[in-house]
Design brief:
heterodimer, A: 95 residues, mainly alpha, Histone, subunit A, two-stranded antiparallel ribbon, B: alpha/beta, 38% helix
């Protein structure tokens, strides 16, 4: 398995909406590389034709009656927001 | 009064119902105990003293009316990953330090409906990511058996609080061993139920296909009583199994005649501490003496379980934790000039290193060009691991093995080597991948006096068989719960 580069780590950090200081980035790259080398051992296993498992139980189409039920009150929901106004979340200007 | 600290739920139930003890007295005794002991152990993130007394008074009224349920008036601690209305639910993270959920998790609703008493919220590895509780953003929890050692994790606070008698029992969550491993390290019983048996509504999500809530207790019977109380179908969790709840506590009977106990050779490997192996062999002998038949089995894909887990769990985590963006709840960074910077600064400052490491690994595994090689591949290996268990359970009723390769390690010992830390979960992870139940039952001590747990596993929804085996082991070993001296 090819070694992961600092550049790739920076790219993944952007995808994950994270930011690292240059010194952290270096430490992270080598730790991530060690972990990736370790999980890379799965490559050696033949899984041709094996169905993947995405959940450990067999439930499909979990239906319930389509009934209107009470929602959480807005003031309780926005009470945890870093910034809110008139029952809405406030974020930096986007457009 | 102090001796009530030693009693389990059934014993307390009798005293409470006879009127020989009130929940208020019991709760006060526990709160006093917490105040005198927790400065050494650091198990509690939030102590809910006033609410606990109010709940106890209410419980005493229910008991006086003769309407007590199994948990009425019993002081219980809750891992800080389970939502409690109006009470901080931090996940031991700076990100949620001030988060007060607007609703109760289903398991908390069920506790409240019975009139159980909540003592407080218990410390954990941040977002349940870790095996030592050292990843808590607030402080590490100490092992009550040796304060220089870790209590295990991620439910370290839940295990330490039960072992140090700072609650009668507690709830934890288990994604890769987070109930069973700390239970083993602290000498208490810990159960991860079958996936889907207990509602995850209100459990802050780490890896949704693996997470499950379960009890940490001082006896097998207590674990059965609590599971009976929290299990059951919930429309608010689409992975909750539509089924009625068996009477698990009735399955706690002694005797293993005719029961086949499978011992997987892959769990007795190099790196398994000698004292741990000795204790496990002793437990197997006790099972044999009670009429169990020990059979050799093989779980051939065990060596791939950790790699499989760290791809699937981190992939799911990277998606689940994308919700912490500084908008709806939780921490928001102060200095930013646009939305993207707000996201990045908030997450860079709000998450600890292990959480970031796992988000990064999961994001990488799901990113364009790597999905097939990592996530799909791991999901295929997961199928092979499940088939291993299915084949094994054709030959045996339960599987017995160590919970962890070693007893509790020293604080700081593995903190700078994430891979070594991951390897300590080698025996617990396969159970989560397969969705089957697993329990840690105390089975002895190592030469330094640290507890060792045996892990008993059963097939999907075979909790009753699991309880029978675990209860028999507990009684057969004659190891009534022992308490650390906390010196």
């Amino acid at each position: 398995m090819a070694k992961i580069t600092i550049k790739e780590v920076e790219h993944v950090a952007h995808l994950a909406r994270l930011r690292f200081a240059p010194s952290e980035l270096e430490e992270f790259t080598s730790q991530l590389d060690a972990i990736l080398q370790f999980v890379g051992k799965l490559e050696s296993l033949d899984t041709e034709g094996v169905e993947p498992t995405y959940r450990a139980i067999e439930i499909v189409n979990c239906f319930r009656e389509d009934e209107v039920k009470p929602s959480l009150p807005i003031e309780k929901v926005v009470a945890n927001a870093p910034e809110s106004e008139d029952g809405a979340f406030v974020v930096p200007r986007i457009i | 009064m102090d001796n009530v600290l030693n009693l389990d739920i059934s014993q307390l139930r009798e005293l409470l119902d006879k009127g020989e003890l009130t929940s208020e007295e019991l709760t006060t005794t526990y709160l006093d105990r917490i105040k005198s002991v927790d400065e050494k152990v650091h198990a509690y993130v939030t102590l809910t003293e006033e609410d606990a007394i109010k709940q106890a008074k209410k419980a005493d009224e229910i008991i006086r009316k003769g309407e007590a349920a199994p948990l009425t008036g019993i002081p219980l601690g809750i891992k800080d990953v389970i939502c409690t209305e109006g009470i901080p639910t931090t996940c031991s993270s700076k990100m949620l330090e001030n988060f007060r959920p607007p609703f109760d998790a289903t398991v908390i609703e069920k506790f409240k409906a019975q009139g159980a008493v909540m003592t407080g919220k218990l410390n954990m590895d941040e977002f349940a990511m870790g095996s030592s509780t050292e990843n808590s953003a607030f402080f590490p929890t100490k092992n009550p058996w040796d304060l220089d050692r870790i209590p295990g994790g991620s439910s370290g606070g839940s295990a330490a609080a039960v072992a140090a008698r700072m609650c009668v029992a507690s709830l934890g969550s288990d994604t890769g061993g987070s109930i069973r491993q700390p239970a083993s390290h602290c000498g208490v019983v810990g159960l991860k139920p079958t996936y889907g048996l207990v509602s995850r509504y209100g459990l802050v999500a780490f890896a949704s296909s693996l997470d499950q809530i379960g009890p940490l207790t001082r006896s097998v019977k207590d674990a059965a009583i609590i599971l009976e109380s929290i299990a059951g179908h919930d429309q608010r969790d689409s992975t909750s199994l539509p089924m009625s709840v068996p009477a698990f506590s009735k399955a706690c009977t002694q005797g293993m005649k005719g029961m086949k106990v499978g011992v997987p050779k892959e769990y007795f490997i190099e790196g398994l501490q000698k004292d741990v192996e000795t204790a496990i062999q002793g437990a197997l002998k006790a099972m044999e003496d009670m009429g169990a038949e020990i059979v050799d089995i093989s779980l051939p894909h065990t060596e791939y379980a950790i790699a499989t887990y760290y791809i699937i769990a981190t992939a799911e985590a990277s998606s689940n934790l994308s919700r912490y963006d500084g908008v709806k709840y939780g921490f928001r960074a102060e200095n930013f000039s646009n939305l993207m910077e707000m996201y990045k600064e908030t997450r860079a400052q709000g998450f600890g290193m292990e959480v970031k490491r796992r988000i990064m690994l999961g994001t990488y595994c799901l990113s364009a060009g790597y999905y097939d090689a990592f996530y799909k591949k791991a999901s295929q290996v997961r199928t092979l691991i499940i088939e291993d268990f299915k084949n094994a359970f054709k030959k045996c009723d339960v599987i017995a093995a160590p919970v962890a390769p070693t007893t509790a390690f020293k604080i700081g010992e593995k903190v700078h080597d994430p891979l070594q830390m991951y390897l300590s979960d080698i025996f617990t992870i396969p159970v989560n991948l397969a969705g089957i139940p697993g329990m840690s039952v105390p089975c002895g001590f190592d030469s330094e006096g640290l507890p060792v747990g045996m892990q008993i596993m059963a097939a999907h929804l075979q909790e009753e068989t699991l309880f029978k085996a675990a209860y028999s082991l507990e009684k057969g070993l004659g190891l009534d719960i022992q308490w650390p001296e906390l010196t």
